[in-house]
Amino acid sequence: MGRALFWFVVTLIGVSLFFGAAMSRDVIEPWLASRGIVFNDIPLLQTVGKLVLTVAAMLLVGAPLTIFLYCLAALGSDQAGQDIHGYTELRLKSGTRLVALIAVGFLLFVFAMAFSESATLLGQIFSFSGGMFFLWGGVWLWRARLRFDGSVLLALDYLGRVHRHEWRDLQRIESNKEAMEYHLWFKTGKKARVSYFFAGLNQLMIQAQEALYKNA
Predict the structure, then answer these.
(1) Where are the transmembrane segments (predicted)?
(2) What residues are paired with 173 via a beta bridge?
(3) 82: part of which helix (H) or strand (E)?
(4) How do residues 163-174 score in pLDDT, each as one tens digit?
(5) CATH class of this structure's domain 77-92+145-216
(6) Confidence of residue 4 (pLDDT cuts 50, 70, 90)
(7) Neighbours of 56 (CB within 10 A)
(8) Distance between CA atoms of 69 and 73, rounded to whole angstroms?
(9) Are 52 and 160 in contact (CB under 8 A)?
(10) DSSP E strand stretches across 14-144
(11) What is the per-residue pLDDT across 176-209, written as a single tens digit (0 to 9) for each?
């Protein structure tokens, strides 16, 4: 929690500095004009100015915001649960679901604004479809779970279907750092995606490593 709060404060400072720098154009441009340098008359200055603002946005806002969201997503209990059938059940951490809720809410707002502003039927269809896509993504993240015991792993795909994988068929485990998930490959040719942000991930990976050792 401490790291998330720290990076939240850093993000706020970065946002303040960025907007302060952007607003300072009202001071800088008249100062330059008084010395015969008209900002809008020099294409190179405009290009450099846009480049500087882009880099500043990445460093002052983008980087700390990304780290803050990562820290926020990692918050929550790291203990797996158990369902009524006796399976060990993993759900995404509460912080991850909160970040997903914020992101989906923002994207739905963007697509709703685009829908209301669109002057064509095609634009409205695109905006509506985009909104529904991200809404489904939010629902999936909220419902996402894995269940396993000593014999099988039950995993949901992106369409909400449950896939049954036998531990005896596990062939290899890959870590996809870009997607922040593990890929568990089975002899059937199918794979199970396991997010780094599942509560109880260590329990699942211990089971997977044991199965991989037995299958060697």
Answers:
(1) 48-75, 96-115, 121-142
(2) 184
(3) strand 81-82
(4) 999 999 999 999
(5) mainly beta
(6) low
(7) 16
(8) 6
(9) no
(10) 81-82, 88-91
(11) 988 889 999 999 899 999 989 898 899 999 999 9
The β-bridge partners of 186 are: 170
Which residue do the tokens 């059940």 mark?
A: 89
What pLDDT was estimated at residue 11?
74
In the block, residue with structure tokens 């002899």: 187
Positive or negative torsion for Cα 17, 23, 27, 28: positive
Cα–Cα distance for residue pair 59/57, rounded to 1 Å? 6
Name every residue whose Cβ is closer than 8 Å to that of residue 29 and which is 6 or more positions away in sequence.
Answer: 39
Q: Are 4 and 72 in contact (CB under 8 A)?
A: yes
- How large is the average pLDDT for residues 22-42? 60
pTM over 0.70: no
Which tokens go with 212? 């991989």
Confidence of residue 43 (pLDDT cuts 50, 70, 90): low
CB atoms under 10 Å from CB of 148, counted, come to: 23
Domain extents in the chain: 2-73, 77-92+145-216, 93-143
Band of pLDDT at residue 153, cut at 50, 70 and 90:
very high
Burial of 29 (0-12, 13-18, 19+ CB in 10 A): middle
199's tokens: 């509560």
* Amino acid occupying residue 108: L
> Which residue, among 55, 61, 74, 85, has the nearest Cα to 148 in the 3D structure?
85
